[in-house]
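Example 205.
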Amino acid sequence: MAGHRTLEPGRLVIASHNPGKVREIRELLGPFGLEPVSAGELGLDEPEETGTTFIANAELKALAAAVASGLPALADDSGLAVDALDGAPGIYSARWAGETKDFAIAMRKVHEAMEEIAGEEDSDRAHFVCALSLAWPDGHVENFEGKVFGHIVWPPRGEKGFGYDPIFRPTGHDISFAEMEPAAKHAMSHRADAFRQLVAACLKG
Ligand code: IMP
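Predicted structure in complex with inosinic acid:
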């Protein structure tokens, strides 16, 4: 596609210290002749996420890893945005789970915040966002943002998935992300949407 830089086969840093994310990104990149290596494996520091948008945070993580390693780097920043909460927890999705990363607590916080404004029409509308940023050591960056729309359900349902999956029911489905088979979730998720855009723009199949 015009205007985008192609990512050539070879080593690519996955700028994340989250093993779940690294595994998912490795699987998605498998068919493209890339050799993913994680920031953790290279001993790279994790920069502070000081951005005010998903894209800004993905970009600062990708650039820091690319510059430190001398290799292209890919970072993901994602979260849940509830319309009636003005997009919260948003970029603070991980932080709502606290030091212990307890998503039962984070999901309850979402529920309690929504109860305060309950009754308003469509107050359960929400979406997941995934920003992907691909950076090169010379400072060039390509950004992509994927979304999946749905509704918040309460109580949490299902044991599969992670994070806020048990309280998110995608539009057009009767079950939550945590009740779905992983392949079904991955086919429609915000991360898959962002990846499709990245593949079309920057990868040679
Ligand atoms: P990040 O590591 O700063 O990008 O934080 C992302 C957070 O958003 C995760 O810790 C999850 O809580 C949440 N999140 C992102 N993607 C998903 C998803 O697919 N399902 C459930 N929660 C998600």
